[in-house]
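Deliverable D2.4 — example input (structure tokens):
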């Protein structure tokens, strides 16, 4: 019954459709590094204390999934008493690995390095690279890194191909990014990229302030600036560097973001090429005039579509990866949204820009996510099948009469008890009958996710017996 009910639900949505709403984007966290010297003496007798003002570290960081976030990113070192500590580096919450760590003096010469596992010098430190660490949103994490003087050693002895780093003497331009909020405009954290002919020259998560954007570029070269913020349309601007500098005349480039439907697409690949498009669909309410929609697929492809009622969008990616997708336009006309048939999975769904949504369906969505629908008071139907979403509440959604949470592994019982309590109180207050609540466990045993509290079970019984709700699987 579980699988049939889900297929029936999806099939019916293909005719009518689905939707959701998110909260403000999470504020990225920060990571900083503290240095300590390893046991190997420098041939010239230098120590960490010998580093003068202007010293930097160059770090490479990747997600545990393997996606590169920073590649030999320069970070300023600050002297704190007898110790050195780096300036904070912005990172979205998640699990990461530090894969390169080089310390340079003010002239750009590498004088210390952290050895990598398997290298000749690895035994001289307690924890050779890669070093795992975690960052929480809006939090500050600290990683202690042990370094060894380079001296006359070869890069290969540390596990590096080269000790050469590019020293950028000054930032090319300043950037200020703003987003709308209740008070007007506010600084926004942002992930910024500078791309040249498909190659990414700069990739950084920037905090909510005016930031320096520095990369090794040609003043006469043509580049594209790409800005990604969850819940906002992707910003792209192609520029000639010297022309942009003349235009700005020392002032920051100011960008005001536009709210949009956004999510992260993670397409699957079979063999060398993607064999099926990654797709999703939306529908508009009856009587809505033709409305343009602009989709930025996150790989440089930008398309525009027109349709008055039903749209299914698809795109073929040339490689697997994480792609920030944004859909902008007259999104107030969208009544239903479904991201349930992609050739891949989805993550980081943000639908704050869709105020008229009455229905949402997500399947095979990301891990460890939360979903905020507290401001979406018109929502009537919510389907979360086989997702990694771990928290949402429905206390501000009195019209919600269809909820499916099938096949969600490790859904927290406390959250489920809270959801059932809110659904029960809405039904009692509004005398809502004949709702649907589907809570199948993923093991195929026709059991319920949970376990539920005695209060939640009693509330389910009353919904079933007194208000005619369908509870799947039926425990009564």
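Example output (designed residues):
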């Amino acid at each position: 019954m579980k699988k049939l009910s889900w297929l029936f639900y999806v099939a019916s949505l293909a005719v009518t459709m689905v939707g959701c709403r998110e909260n403000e984007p999470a504020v990225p966290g920060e990571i900083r590094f503290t240095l300590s010297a390893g046991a190997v003496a420098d041939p010239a007798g230098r120590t960490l204390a010998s580093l003068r003002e202007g010293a930097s570290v160059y770090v490479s960081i990747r997600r545990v999934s393997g996606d590169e976030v920073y590649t030999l990113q320069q970070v300023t070192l600050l002297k704190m008493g007898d110790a050195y500590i780096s300036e904070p580096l912005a990172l979205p919450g998640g699990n990461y690995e530090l894969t390169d760590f080089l310390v340079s003096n003010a002239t750009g010469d590498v004088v210390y390095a952290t050895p990598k596992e398997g290298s000749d010098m690895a035994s001289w430190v307690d924890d050779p690279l890669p070093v795992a660490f975690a960052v929480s949103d809006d939090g500050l994490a600290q990683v202690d890194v042990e370094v060894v003087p380079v001296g006359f050693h070869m890069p290969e002895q540390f596990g590096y191909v080269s000790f050469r780093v590019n020293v950028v003497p000054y930032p090319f331009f300043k950037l200020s990014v703003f987003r709308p909020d209740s008070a007007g405009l506010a600084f926004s954290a942002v992930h910024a990229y500078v791309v040249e002919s498909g190659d990414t020259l700069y990739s950084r998560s920037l905090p909510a302030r005016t930031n320096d954007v520095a990369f090794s570029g040609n003043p006469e070269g043509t580049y594209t600036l790409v800005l990604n913020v969850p819940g906002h349309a992707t910003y792209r601007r192609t520029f000639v560097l010297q022309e942009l500098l003349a235009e700005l005349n020392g002032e920051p480039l100011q960008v005001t973001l536009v709210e949009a439907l956004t999510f992260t697409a993670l397409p699957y690949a079979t063999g060398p090429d993607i064999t099926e498009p990654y797709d999703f669909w939306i529908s508009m309410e009856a009587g809505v005039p033709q409305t343009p929609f602009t989709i930025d697929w996150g790989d440089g492809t930008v398309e525009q579509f027109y349709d008055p009622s039903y749209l299914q969008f698809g795109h073929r990616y040339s490689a697997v990866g994480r792609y920030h997708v944004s859909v902008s336009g007259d999104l107030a006309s969208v009544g239903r949204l479904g991201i349930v048939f992609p050739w891949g999975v989805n993550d980081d769904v943000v639908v704050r820009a869709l105020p008229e949504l009455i229905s949402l369906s997500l399947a095979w969505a990301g891990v460890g996510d939360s979903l905020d629908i507290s401001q979406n008071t018109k929502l009537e139907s919510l389907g979360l099948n086989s997702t990694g979403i771990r928290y949402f509440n429905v206390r501000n959604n009195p019209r919600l009469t269809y909820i499916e949470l099938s096949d969600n592994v490790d859904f927290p019982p406390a959250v489920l008890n809270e959801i059932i309590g809110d659904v029960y109180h809405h039904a009692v207050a509004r005398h809502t009958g004949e709702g649907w609540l589907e809570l199948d466990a993923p093991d195929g045993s026709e059991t319920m996710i949970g376990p539920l509290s005695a209060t939640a079970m009693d509330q389910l019984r009353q919904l079933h017996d007194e208000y005619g709700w369908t509870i799947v699987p039926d425990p009564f």
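The first strand starts at residue 29 and ends at 37.
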